[in-house]
Amino acid sequence: MPQKADGEILVVDDDPLTRKILVRTLTSAGYGCRSSENGITAWNDLHARPPGLILLDLEMPDLDGAELVRRLRADKNRTIAQIPVIMLTGHSDEQSEVLCLEAGADDFVTKPINTTVLRARIETHVRLRLMRDQLRTQNEELEAWRHNLERDLAAARLTQQSLIPQKLPTLDGWDIAAVFRPVIEVGGDIYGWVPMKDGRMLFWIADATGHGASAALITTLTKLLFHYGTVEDDAPTQIMQAVNNDFRGIFGGRSFMTAMCVALDFDTGRASIVGAGHPPLVVPRGDGQVELIPSASPPLGLVEFPQFVETTVELGKGQSFLLYTDGLFGAPNKDRQRLTPQQLGESIHLSEPNAETILKKVLRLSAPANGADPLPDDVAAVVVLRTE
Questions:
Q1: Closest by alpha carbon to 360, among 168, 162, 181?
Q2: Per residue in 92-135, pLDDT tens?
Q3: What is the pTM of this model?
Q4: Is 106 helix (H, G, I), strand (E, B) or coil?
Q5: Which residues of 335-358 are buried (b: 16+ CB within 10 A; e: fewer)?
Q6: DSSP structural state of residue 171
Q7: Is the dihedral of CA 15, 21, 27, 29 positive or negative?
Q8: Omega cis (within 30) before 112
């Protein structure tokens, strides 16, 4: 472990009288001091116990001040390499000043030494060292905070991924595809499906406010609420009402989410849709015709007793519906505007072989033009296609 520099001043000078005067002067001024008689001794001393600052004579035998500073600045130990150095020189010419600074000294004082000037220079560099130490400590704390945040986000990501269905339903005559792409490790979008008591399948999707861990926590709750809702009720309007009541009861109107659910009868192809502040369900009908089922109710959590409206559509062979969050609209740029639900529907043809092909086409359409820009919002989507 690197040694920590203390607050002492190391006086390095080959002249005994100069060392004695400097140590006495600085000690009487309240500084802790010790001394070394030459560069080699100082080199060993500062590694054994790094000082807070070095007063270093420029001209010394064997290892002079300039070479000692060069070695100091090149040291692998950051504590050693960053020790402030004030060079003491008997020459007041510009060449000596340049030599001191080029070697890596922080400052210089000419001999004979004016103690008032020396103390002022020392105070300046002591303050700078303290500020640097504080900044390093803050950076270390920030790094530790960042590491903890990344660890928490990784844990949240694993939790959220466990909530996203990993296995698609396998049903005769139907094909299903889904995608989830958060802006960061975790996001506020979630979708799922759950069998209903009457034999239908409830497909649902929700978009919580915000991003990150707080939004991910809401998605965790959302899955539980939708699953609990199907235990008590079969009507999509009643399920949405139950989810709204529980969500509002937990957050007291301080948070909300958009949502949409589709109760699908696989035998008949009849789908019952209920939306709450969510983007319209997209149902491509062929020949450029698109049926959009809008949300007739406000987002979940805002109103205590909203009026949920159920809309029914029929899906024939080759027809599908697209359930998605608004991140699928893509990011506007100088070349194009955000996509609309109508445009998403027009991109889907009835001749598509499977749901995965439909989903990939929609994602390519909504992706940033250069394919490299970050997503502006979380993206979640579910495609359900009737194949027979």
A1: 181
A2: 777 777 887 888 899 988 888 888 888 898 988 888 888 888 88
A3: 0.62
A4: coil
A5: eeeebebebbbebbeeebeebbbb
A6: B
A7: negative
A8: yes
